[in-house]
Design goal:
Elements (H helix, E strand, L loop, with lengths): L7 E5 L2 E5 L3 E6 L4 E2 L4 H11 L5 E6 L5 E2 L3 H5 L5 E7 L5 H8 L7 E4 L2 H12 L2
Parallel strand pairs: 3-5, 4-6, 5-7, 7-8
Antiparallel strand pairs: 1-2, 2-3
Length: 127
Amino acid sequence: MKNLQLGIQLEFSFGKVTVHDDYIYVIMDEGVTVQPSFNDVLIAIAESYFPEKDFIYITHRIYSYAIDPTIYLKTSQIENLKGFIVVSPNKDFKEAHNIEKLFFCKPFKVYHTMEEALIQKDTMLYR
């Protein structure tokens, strides 16, 4: 198994991903439309950095972008992905969250701060 370093930065055409010990932290670029094909990147990250370890996906919705919620159907199939957390200071995101979580069959939470997200990450992984 590959030794995991903390805070490995990866850049893609749609945004930035930072790989940590037990989670990935994603910031999508402004104006991107998140599509099911982006799952190929997530699957490659899971296989490379978490081949035998559970992890959480944390996305920080700093910028405005669109999401095809069907992306979560395939994302849910990543066996060692134990949950999905959205960090969004935007209180209006609650309605979109209710639609998105219908497509994701694992824990899906929304928090206003990264600190809250990291506490929940530990709860999702180590319950």
